[in-house]
Amino acid sequence: MDLNYLWFWIIAVLFIGYFVLDGFDFGVGMSLPFLGKDDTDRRVLINTIGPVWDLNETWLIVAGAALFASFPEWYATMFSGFYLPLLIILLALIARGVSFEYRHQRPESRWKAWFDGMIIVGSAVPALLWGVAFANVVRGVPLDAGHNYIGTFFDLLNPYALLGGLTTLLLFFTHGVVFVALKTEGDIRVRARSLAIRSGVVTILVAASFLVWTTLAYGTVASALLALGAALTLVASFVANLRGKEGWAFALMAATIALAVLTLFASLFPDVMPASNNPANSLTIENASSTPYTLSVMSWTALIAAPVILLYQGWTYWIFRKRVTRAHIEEAAH
Asked: What are the transmembrane regions (predicted)?
């Protein structure tokens, strides 16, 4: 396999890592108004992701840097054409990160409520807009002969892209609520499982609609098989949650997100940014990639660095593997 094709799939894997890991962070943040009956409950929710949320976000940095180095034309076209939604995502991520750090700095309820709102919005906005962005990449956008985006912001808000955004929003929300059930005990764990059942039904219906649309309009045989796998793992996760198997439910939700991302990349292949107005203007793996020398250096760097990063992140999750309870929060307050 040529290195440019290899790096196309490496980019897919990096975004899988980001959406799976930061996806449940988004879901936990969005669950605050549904599961946080009081301040202690909200602190329990935040503490389930407290040790790992910033580590999870590094996957986005790595994915962006790898995209810039391996496919500079793709990076330039996407980040310039999608400048406003990507800026909104960045501002939302900043607001969420600031809220995690500043929420506990003062005891006033209004202070905490303000930052809780920022966590909720800072989680929901990226969860929605990432789906909108990737759906537009698969659908294709108007490009000129120099591969520059010539549409408007509102052209990105088409029905297919909005359905993609709603799909990622619901997938991440359900993923996060299942994670809460996996990481907590007592009443909040029971309520999280119940909420995951209710949101799971809606998620299955919306995600199935998006995957069918993707397969019929832009799919290939490979993407159709991946979409079928995503649908089956999503239903299996729902069943596992019904039976109280939180670990299996979480793992199967992660597999669902991974297969859904692979479905989009398989539908895109061999393009990286299709031109909806003129196929001749499309960016492909061939015309958007870096030189073979650059890709070779990147491959050796990734081969050395990736195992170290994965071991460190796995160690972090192992250290903070225990469940978070109200008793832990109340003890820490004294």
From this structure: 6-32, 74-94, 114-137, 157-182, 194-213, 219-240, 247-269, 297-320
Peptide bond into 72 cis (omega under 30): no
Any bridge partners for residue 283, and if so which? 273
| 269-324: pLDDT as tens digits | 999 999 999 899 999 999 999 999 999 999 999 999 889 989 999 999 999 988 98
CA distance 174 to 260: 15
CA 28 to chain CA centroid, Å, is 13
Helices and strands (DSSP H and E) totals, the chain: 14, 2
Q: Say how far apart CA 236 and CA 116 lie, in whole Å.
A: 32
- C-alpha closest to that of 20 among 67, 71, 48, 60: 60
The backbone region for 323, taken as left when phi is positive above 0, alpha when psi lies in -120 to 50, beta otherwise, is beta
- Helical (H) or strand (E) element with 126: helix 109-139
CA dist., res. 153 & res. 63, Å (int) = 24
The letter for the amino acid at 54 is D
Residue carrying the six token digits 């909104």? 88
For residues 233-243, one letter each, b for 16 or more C-beta atoms within 10 angstroms of the residue's C-beta and e for the rest, the string is: bbebbbebbee
Distances (CA, A) of 206 to 163, 171, 327: 8, 9, 37
**Domain limits of the chain?**
23-332
| DSSP-assigned beta bridge partners for residue 143 | 149
Q: Work out the number of other CB atoms within 10 angstroms of the CB of residue 314.
A: 10
CB 11 within 8 A of CB 67: yes
Q: Over 50: is that where the pLDDT of 334 sits?
A: no
Among candidates 85, 65, 75, 99, which has minimal Cα distance to 131? 85
